[in-house]
Design a protein that fits this description.
It is a single chain. This protein is of the alpha/beta class. The protein has one domain: Rossmann fold (3-Layer(aba) Sandwich). It contains 5 helices and 8 strands. The strands form 2 sheets. The chain has a 6-stranded parallel β-sheet, with helices on both faces. It has a two-stranded antiparallel sheet with strand order 6-7. The N and C termini lie far apart (36 Å).
Amino acid sequence: MITAKIVGAGGYGGVGITELILRHPNVSIGCMVSLSDTGKLMSDVYPHLKGKCDIEIVSPDHISVNDKFDVVIYSTPDGVGMCTAEDDLNRGAKVIDYSGDFRFNNMSKYEQYINKNDIYIDKLSIIDVLANLGWVKTREYIMD
């Protein structure tokens, strides 16, 4: 079983990734981190998750944040992942970032992994950080 930590769990993106993970048969949520709603259960913040995700939301300085997780998903404002993802990577986690922190800064690097017709899923096993394409690029994929 893959264990996940969700950073920014209390926000819109955090609940979205939580809902997706809850449907995945091989991933469990081990830690939910947020600046807001700390000490509350995720299901108290989002009642539709009652009985599905009754995990306590912890603050970024809580001791459990430093546990080892297989994957850490950042659903945070820009700048947060850039400051803290290195610690997760050093503990052996893969990082998925919903913000713009790890987007490619040049087209040739971007095209190594993505093109209009194919998302290179086979490369996921060899990378440590997966960046968000951004809403404009995602919209382009959907609209074409």
